[in-house]
Amino acid sequence: MPRYNPDLTRVQAGIPLLPKGDFEFSVNEGKTFSRQSTDPATQETKDVYGIQYNLQVMSGSDDSFIGKIIPLQIYAHAGDAALSIGKRFVMAALGFALNDEANFNEKYADGDWNFDTEDQILGDMWSSVIGTRVAASTDQKVDKRDHTRMNQVFNWRPI
Q1: Percent of the chain with pLDDT over 90
Q2: Residue 42: Cβ within 10 Å count
Q3: Which of 10, 105, 142, 155 would staple 137 via disulfide (CB 3.0–4.6 Å)?
């Protein structure tokens, strides 16, 4: 059996929560996800799926976060409200401000928005976000379903 020597000092032990401020990110990787999730309030189990991008902090209000990786998940199973949040990120990454949504819709109406969680395939539109840079004002809020957790809040904007 081969010998491995992973260096755990080079990786993050958890997902950092960014403080209230302004940050710039590089979109480094995108992949699909699919898993079962249990709602802590109702104990209902459901399929959860979407796309996760790994964002690297490039600059911001707090220099201690530069270089950190922040996973951003766009949930596709939860309907229009969740997709709307993801759309704001994609629009900003592709250079569109929120008030320019009509132009975004016109330009990408025929885009390939498909994804396959089994084969880890992203349609062209999801892949086009990888390698871009995006800015956001950040904050934190208490999770509505699990009051022991904090959620990251992003207000996305193009660079």
Answers
A1: 69
A2: 9
A3: 155
Place of tokens 């796309």: 51
What is the distance between the alpha carbons of residues 76 and 94, in angstroms, rounded to a whole number?
19
E strand or H helix at 82, and its extent? helix 80-93
Top pLDDT among 2 and 130 is at 130
d(CA 72, CA 7): 25
pTM: 0.85
Q: Tell me if 96 sits within 8 A of 135, measured CB to CB.
A: no
Residue 122 burial (CB count, 10 A): 19
Give which of 56, 32, 132 is closest to 91, Cα–Cα: 132
Q: Could you give the dihedral angle defined by the CA atoms of residues 41, 84, 55 and 60, in that order, rounded to the nearest 10 degrees?
A: -100
How far, in Å, CA of 98 to CA of 134, rounded?
13
Q: How far is CA 36 from CA 7, 109, 147, 156, in A?
A: 31, 31, 21, 28
Pick from 74, 86, 89: nearest CA to 132: 89
How long is the chain?
159
In single-letter form, the type of residue at position 32 comes to T
